[in-house]
Design a protein that fits this description.
It is built from 13 helices and 13 strands. By secondary structure, the chain is an alpha/beta fold.
Length: 351
């Protein structure tokens, strides 16, 4: 099968550090190639892949000196570069939202018969009216990464179903022995991820907390007022952004992952990365949390914004079987399972 994959240009494929969508695109692309499919990847020029790479930009756009307008223009050109060659492919799998949906409407109303599957990695909230009209006008097939993201969308035809994200769980070392025992927060340090609540939980329990993640400009004031003053280098430590190897080492020694999410988490790659490492997840009941985490088995899903419940859950982490956490990922969230489902969707659409 000849497949085109369109990735965002914001982060390279695969990401060196942060980049959930780009990681998923990379895992799907490389697995499809291993299975003998012909894949062309439309992504940033510094991407690393066995696929045929068509660069939409010289390098990834995050932290570049390009304006928002320039970035948006490059994203559109990246989609257009694929759509202009649509006849070369059996199917196109898009991993963008607004830019892709808008351009695909023009493309699918034209003469080409190449089908498009849009994998929606969001939304994380109810659509505004403009976004709603754009989504309803999109004539192609679409899938979501969780039931919770589907529930935020208006009903429309050509829903190809839910495809949960997967990871190469075997690449995450499993430590069933003695750990250093710190609490771990992983993610961008933004109000949506609410690291200030993780800090509150850690301080009230007297537990060491490592904060892992980048500080991006829109959330800098939040970081400087809500997070940075609490970092003491002892109980509360800020490690910063880490690469994939460093992240795996940190998971191997963590007691649990604290995820006090304040938004509708679309999936949460860090949920399954933690569980693959034998790390239970303690989070709030928002978004996909209940779909990914099995309460009392692979972690705890507590009432939103309830710090006391989160503290109690952390104290009960020793009762969680770490091997069960890893089995959960192997049985439901492996790369092979994810790619099996994507291939099933591609074939169904082509038929």
């Amino acid at each position: 099968m000849k497949i085109a994959m369109i990735a965002p240009l914001e982060i390279r494929v695969p990401p060196e550090a942060y980049g959930g969508i780009e990681l998923v695109v990379s895992l799907i692309t490389e697995a499809l190639i291993r299975r003998g499919h012909d894949v062309t990847l439309f992504a940033s020029g510094d991407s690393v892949t066995e696929a045929r790479l068509v660069p939409g930009s010289e390098r990834f756009l995050r932290n570049s000196d390009k304006s928002l307008e320039e970035k948006a223009a490059l994203e559109k050109r990246n989609v257009m570069a694929c759509l202009e060659r649509a006849s070369e492919f059996d199917i196109i799998n898009l991993h963008l939202l607004s830019e892709g949906l808008a351009l695909e409407k023009l493309f699918l109303c034209g003469s080409s018969r190449t089908p498009v599957l849009a994998t929606l990695h969001g939304p994380h909230r109810e659509l505004d009216e403009c976004e709603r009209q754009l989504f309803l006008a999109y004539p192609g097939y679409y899938s979501t990464i969780s039931l919770s993201t589907k529930q935020l969308l208006p009903e429309k035809e050509k829903f190809a179903g839910v495809t949960y994200n997967g990871i190469d769980f075997q690449s995450y070392p499993f430590n069933d022995g003695v750990r250093e025992g710190y609490l771990l927060f992983l993610g961008s340090l933004t109000p949506n991820k609410a690291p200030h609540l993780a800090i509150e939980v850690a301080r009230r329990l007297g537990r060491k907390l490592l904060l892992i993640g980048a500080v991006y400009e829109p959330a800098r004031e939040y970081f400087q007022t809500k997070v940075e003053p609490e970092i003491d280098g002892d109980l509360i430590q800020y490690v910063g952004e880490v690469n994939e190897q460093q992240k795996r080492k940190l998971f191997a020694q963590a007691d649990c992952l604290l995820a006090p999410i304040a938004w509708q988490e679309g999936f949460g790659m860090y949920f399954i990365e933690a569980m693959a490492s034998g790390v239970p997840v303690v989070t709030f009941r928002r978004g996909s949390a209940q779909e990914v985490i099995s309460h009392n088995e692979t972690g705890f899903v507590v009432e939103p914004d309830n710090v006391v419940d989160m503290m109690v859950a952390v104290m009960n982490v020793p009762h969680i079987n770490r091997a069960q956490c890893r089995r959960r990922v192997e049985e439901r969230f492996s790369v092979d399972i994810m790619v099996d489902i994507y291939l099933e969707k591609y074939r169904h659409i082509l038929e």
